[in-house]
């Protein structure tokens, strides 16, 4: 049986769930805002503990990466992400989740071939392009400083 483009489009529309864009954007905004608010609270807390601005920023990054990894390890982060959507994906906690989740999933395959090899399945391309872009950016700045 050969289907026409119109029939295929109708079948696809019936099979695909409709997107609730307004609801998804609202939840992403709220959850991303909550993560950023937690980060801002941590920044103020670290500075009140006597850290300078640069050290407080580093502390916030480390803390948020740890929280993202920890919540992923205890299987809470994915439940939050079901409702929050992109709000949990975009901040640094989402990057932490993208590294830890494959490592946990492939733990049964062993430490080297499971955790070690699969940990960077999702985050690997991000790391490669991020590191490459920073090297190229650094070289451009270095060349302009020579002149």
Can you walk through the features of this model?
It is a single chain. The protein is an all-alpha fold and 147 residues long. It has a domain at 22-119. The chain is 80% helix and 0% strand. It has eight helices and no strands. The chain has helices at 5-15, 21-48, 53-73, 77-84, 86-89, 92-105, 111-118, 123-146. Helix 2 crosses helix 3 (53-73). It is extended and about 70 Å long.
Q: Structural class of the secondary elements?
A: mainly alpha
Kindly report how far apart the N and C termini lie: 69 Å
* Main β-sheet description: none
Average pLDDT, rounded to a whole number, is 83
- Unreliable stretches, pLDDT < 50, 5 or more residues? none
Give the beta-strand count.
0
Properties at a glance:
147 residues, mainly alpha, 80% helix
Explain briefly what this protein structure is:
Helix content is 80%, strand content 0%.
What is the secondary structure topology, with strand pairs?
Layout: H1 5-15, H2 21-48, H3 53-73, H4 77-84, H5 86-89, H6 92-105, H7 111-118, H8 123-146
Helix pairs in contact: 2-3, 3-6, 6-7
